[in-house]
Write a structure and sequence with these properties.
Chain lengths: 330, 367
Amino acid sequence: MLMYILRRLLLASITCVAISVLTFVIIRLPPGDFIDAYIANLASTGSSITADQAEAMRHDYGLDRPVIVQYFLWIARVVQGDFGVSMMWRRPVTEVIGDRLWLTMLVSFSALFLTWTIALPIGIYSAVKQYSVGDYIATMVGFLGLAIPNFLLALILMYFGFRYLGLSVGGLFSAEYAQEAWSWAKAWDLAKHVPLPACVLALAGTAQLIRIMRANLLDELRKPYVVTAKAKGIGNLRVILKYPVRAALNPFASSIAYVFPYLVSGSIIVSLVLGLPTVGPLLLQSLVAQDMYLAGTIVLLLGIMTVVGTLISDLLLMWIEPRLRLTGRL
Amino acid sequence: MSTALADDSLAQAGQLRLTWLRFKRHKLAFVSLFIVALFYLVAIFADGLAINDPHATDAKRSYIPPQGIHLFDEDGFNPHVSGLTGKRDMKTFKLAYVPDPARKLKVVLFAHGYSYNLFGLIPTDIHLIGLETPQPVDGIFLLGTDQLGRDLFSRMMVATRISLSIGLVSVGLSLVLGILLGGMSGLYGGWIDTAIQRVIEVIRSIPTIPLWMGIAAALPNTWSVTQVYFAITLIISFIGWTELARVVRGRFLALREEDFVIAAEMLGASQLRIMLRHMLPSFTSHVIAAVSLALPAMIISETSLSFLGLGLRPPAISWGILLQDAQNVQVLAGAPWLLCAAIPVVLVILAFNFLGDGLRDAADPYG
């Protein structure tokens, strides 16, 4: 079991390194650097800086060193918790990101939680009552969830909210709390706003998980041990919940590893449509402005948080899968 | 299939024919096949189905609501649309063009409109429907117009071409990568397999949209529409190949131990021949199913990227770009018809999903 955990941890750290390299490569891809963008920005407002000043700025920000050196300079400071200064905002990156990262994770985790709580009972129902009206409805809704990109769903909900209910759907806080410090009232306000984006995000993932759960459980239900258990006179519901559902849960649990990154990326684009104060809009702005430290930090942190989320799901899998717990292999 | 003759033909039927027979039983998938085919037909004849020039802007016809074609009037069958008449709003003194039922413009089939090249080769100006005599401002706006006065219906027709082809091209690229890497992984096993599997795991654990956004934002502004198109295709397929590689690897692993593969090895067939002649045919249907499930994901990716303004750039027309106009609630409140661009996206993704499901079930001989 220890070996298994160690292997997972090793893989997770390799993934983190890969993410950091990839992040850095992406940020360095655009021709020109932040200073060029900065000069272009100044030019559009009518002012300019001299070539010497530009050179000095490049030197200050370390942009005149080889790329590989820049990467190690960056990563060395990242490890110490110093993510650099956002060139666009002229403030430390951590300060600019602030609560946004946690709000992103809050929305994604709520969506994950919702995905599970919806998909599990519906998946079980669909398998047990195969080809019933409820099964067909669940399958239909599942397919619709799969077919409607979540930003589109957000857009449609926003339109209907605006048109027929006269309220602006979106945001994570009411106007009066947006600038406030954290308090119980603000947390409650947040709790009231989270379900909508979480639902929007959860729909697509739910569809996938329902299908997985249904297929797994259908396979298990046909097995002889279910018949034996029933023949021994155990109640129908108890038989299903106690044996085949537990067996069918394993592939279901391992599928979170793929659902979670998907939810995180979905939250970025949904945030943009719904105007949520998550890292989504910030990422778009920083990419457009080529603010490399800010964009890099966001992509890096999102990636690492996703890896951690995946790791948690792996440990969860170990908890429900005795074979893994005892032998360390599946 | 109760007669002896039918049984014989079934017993001799090849894998593809058996798959096809099983596939036809799956009603929803069968219908989806036709819907997908219809979409590709639209993509091929996009310009002929378009009514107005999708690029032509005209401030006079900004935000015109959808107008239907009236088939009958007092004189019997006489398909027509209402012309536009300028009216001055006496409160704001703004000149607004509104449909005027008194001005009837005759609609005919195979009308002459803007010129285009059919199949990119044959210059023509025939459109399926159009006005009998083309007018400078008036036109048929089945789904209304956008802010710049461009006809949404015509733009949707033309967008089909880019949105569907970008999916095909990126799936093609992913397929090459997937078969190559998945095949190597499954065939050689050992450290090659481990390495490729780890790479796949790493790629899959990275949230894709931030990654795409990063790469797409890095594309230079000076690139032409075609260059951006291919760059976006590459970006999408670079991440989309993992699922296909997984399917291919799984099949290779399963087939490697099969008797007929071992027999071929014993007979001294080369590795390439075993792969192409013996193994590939027995999982083509699985690959086709995986492809048709991968396509909708690619289409969503393109739509999302273009929607964010990081994908294709105008003047290219894709569904994502059309939806970009509908990003704002204020705009949507005034012109809800702009959301129509979402309909083909949802429809085609549904159709591909049903198709893929049907194919996957059909490809599984034990299903």
